[in-house]
Amino acid sequence: MDLSQYKLIWSDEFNYFDSSKWIKGSSQTWPDRYGTIKAWDPSLVSVGNGYLHLAVDQRSDGWYGGLVHGRNLEAWKYGYIEFRADLPAGQGLWSALWMMPRDNVYGYWPNSGEIDILEYLGTSRELTHGYSTVHYAANGNHAQKYVAANGTDWSQGWHTWGMEWDRGSDGHVQLTFYVDGNAFGTISDTEYARAVGGGQGSPFDQFFYPILNLTVGGAWAGEPTSAVDGAELVVDWVRVYQEGQGSTGTGSTGTSGTGSSGTNSVVGSAGPDALKGTAASEQISGLGGDDTIEAGGGNDTIFAGSGNDFIFGGAGADVFMIAPGQGPDKVLDYVDGTDKIGLSTGLRFEDLRFRYDSTWQYTWVTDKSGNALMGLKYVLPTKLDASDFVTAGSGGSTTTASSSSGTTAGSSSGGTTSGSTGFVRINGTNAAETQAGTGGNDLIQGLGGSDTIYAGAGNDTISGGAGNDFVFGGGGVDVVRLEPGQGSDRFSDFQDGIDKIGLTGGLHFEDLYFLHDPTWGYTWIGDASGARVLGLKNILPGQVTALDFTTLDDGLF
Fold first, then answer.
1. Nearest 5°: CA angle at 192, between 186 and 197?
2. Among 284, 275, 285, which Cα is nearest to 252's?
């Protein structure tokens, strides 16, 4: 592998456990999809003598394994990714370095893809095979394409495994896999299905984050024996390279620009850039491409331009500009009450909508058609109103947008509560009633009584409250709230892999139990007291994992 055109942008040599790069997986944060691991245990992840150790452990209640991942910490798009490892042999062992999509742009697995740089089985029949695979959706079903490094017992000694992930000048994406610097297979976008709604190369044209783990069992690896108890996957290092200067962490390959004292503007190119401001007040323009913008100090105005950009405003009172057709961009450090969102190109506050992504904790600012323009990290929709928006005038001046509220509350009438279009908070009463969403992105609260809630289209957040409620989520990505003391609610059309169950009031996934009612076809979720709090229609207990749950901010309700 010729790295002369690449620059090292990220690495971990495992001299210590770096929590800014990795999260230790637990049974609550990372369920096992394939093997027979009962739970991921952080105690089976350790760093010593310059190595990362991921172990498996057989206990009285089952097998436990070690996993680390970079979700919400690191993600890359294109480049060369490589790791050096000592792979364990043994019946049922399954070592993996793989990657998952940061943003699920094309939907949940497998629609947004999965990249397995290496999967290695320790069973005797597989010791001479190292597998590299891409997973994707084809005609609505899971599909995969793999290549293999064959002929050598890869459990003997140290080996490096890598992937060169490239988008050529012709727009085609290809992934070439390496062992010890030698290519053994390539998968191009002519060999896998394009994502629904995606362009050429999709779904592997987005950012992916890394995962390392050692698991056991499953139909592929075979059931483990006690002989592999205590086995370890040992990793020397993980390194990420990108062509040219590139950017680090969650950025992408491209040019770099830096402002200087006394300079009024920092301007990028039509491609992906890494732009940095200074302590002065500046105007920063990303123009095109997927940029990473760090504004620095001062009161900056940021025009990210087209592309999916990551923006860090830094200190000062910054203005993040939005325009029709841009983004979607992500602002990682929006300060409510200090920073502003600038409206350009004829946008008006009353034309905007807001929806909350409880999984990634962004409030998305969208246009009337629901197209996302900008996401604000760790900001709740209820925190936003017209005072957060300014209209850009000539000469860089701004005027506060005029509107009394960013949300519209529904009202109760004749037992039915309905909202208006847009991001709407719909509150019921303490009586039994029927509630209907708007077709947009709603936050619906039943409050009291045994309600029937039809959320409709849109990405809705639903809280039944007290009483035994019936919930119909309808289309979109919906979140139904689970809280202590609520009634026995029924979610009639839960979409596994799409909808979520939101935990509030101090509830944790590990506090819950699952019980199947074959007569009525519900899987009931119960709390620690034994009370049944939510039933999922036509869902089996084995389909419900920690990935179906998210934590909601109690301040939403």
1. 135
2. 275
119: annotated active-site residue: yes
**Is residue 126 annotated as a catalytic residue, yes or no?**
no
- Distance from C-alpha of 94 to C-alpha of 46, rounded to nearest angstrom: 18
State how far the alpha carbon of 552 is from the alpha carbons of 84, 146, 383, 384, 549, in Å: 39, 38, 15, 17, 10
CA-wise closest residue to 175 among 159, 192, 160: 192
What is the tens place of the pLDDT at every residue in 286-336?
887 888 888 888 888 988 888 888 888 888 889 999 988 787 888 988 888
- Confidence band of 257 (pLDDT split at 50, 70, 90): very low
Going from the C-alpha of 473 to that of each of 92, 117, 324, 466, 529, the distances in angstroms are 41, 37, 29, 18, 27
User: Per the residue annotation, which of 13, 74, 82, 114 is the catalytic one?
Assistant: 114
**Interval 72-112: pLDDT, tens:** 888 999 999 999 999 999 999 999 999 999 988 898 889 99
C-alpha–C-alpha distance, residues 263 and 31, integer Å: 50
Residue 92 DSSP one-character state: T
What single-letter amino acid sits at 506? G
Q: Are 326 and 312 in contact (CB under 8 A)?
A: no
Sheet holding 389-392, edge to edge: 265-267, 283-285, 301-303, 319-322, 340-343, 389-392, 398-400
Residue 548 near residue 500 (C-beta atoms within 8 A): yes
One of 74, 119, 294, 483 is an active-site residue; which one? 119
The pTM of this model reads 0.50
Torsion-angle region of 102 (φ positive above 0: left; ψ -120 to 50: alpha; else: beta) = alpha
- What count of residues does the chain have? 557
Q: How far is CA 512 from CA 37, 79, 322, 467, 549, in A?
A: 19, 41, 42, 20, 11
Question: Which of 485 and 491 is assigned the larger pLDDT?
Answer: 491
Beta strands in 264-382 (DSSP E): 265-267, 273-276, 283-285, 292-294, 301-303, 310-312, 319-322, 329-331, 340-343, 353-357, 362-366, 372-377
